[in-house]
Request: fold
Amino acid sequence: MKKTLITLTILLGSMGSFAQNVRFTTDGVIEFERKTNMWATLKKRINKDNETYLQPAYDSYKKNQPQFKILKSTLTFSNDKSLFTPLPDTGKDVSGFWGSDPNSTQNNTIFSDLASSSFITQKKVFEETFLVRDSLRKINWKLTSETRDIAGYECRRANAIIMDSIYVVAFYTDKIPVSGGPESFSGLPGMILGVALPHENVSWFATSVKDKPVTAAELKAPVKGKAVNTKGLNDTLNGVLKDWGSYAQTVLKALTI
Reply:
């Protein structure tokens, strides 16, 4: 019995020492990689009404362009605030039918205030820039037991449906106790380091996490653009896209995810 008590005391002491050494990151910069399967995305655009001209354009794209379009971004965060910033596209220039496709670009610079559940997004929509202010999207996440290592952090999987039909898979870590994430994804009990939209052929995954102090100057919200809220932006987009046929929903989805 005495030996058992000694062993238990040593074990509990070791666990306490380990817990004291666990580092929880509350400030830093995360680098993300956005990967879009352009072959699959563009293939979906072809139908019997446009195949005579889109099929050759698609075949040319597939011959000359890589399957995956890779774009990079950063998420700067400090406690209850974050700033998602797209980085310049350094890949091969895309022209022709697909040059301005919303699925091949990053359109949003997003400042999120998690304490007030609000955001400010500078959103580029073709030739116009909007400044969207509104409440953070509420996502009904369902946690699972699946885990995955991302950028050196063990992350737990969560699933959700957004915009009525878009299936989302996310991975978050409670070692970064900030309820944020890339783009407009948030609301989990820890930082989201990976997001995949399997049916939309796009994903965002962290490639590195830098644990460092962040100043207020590094978390400045964007200020330029036509001021609207989410409903106002959607009304504007619906009006502009009303004559775009079936492609309108594809563009609307890409611009509002």
About this structure: Confidence is low (pLDDT under 50) at residues 1-21. The radius of gyration is 22 Å.
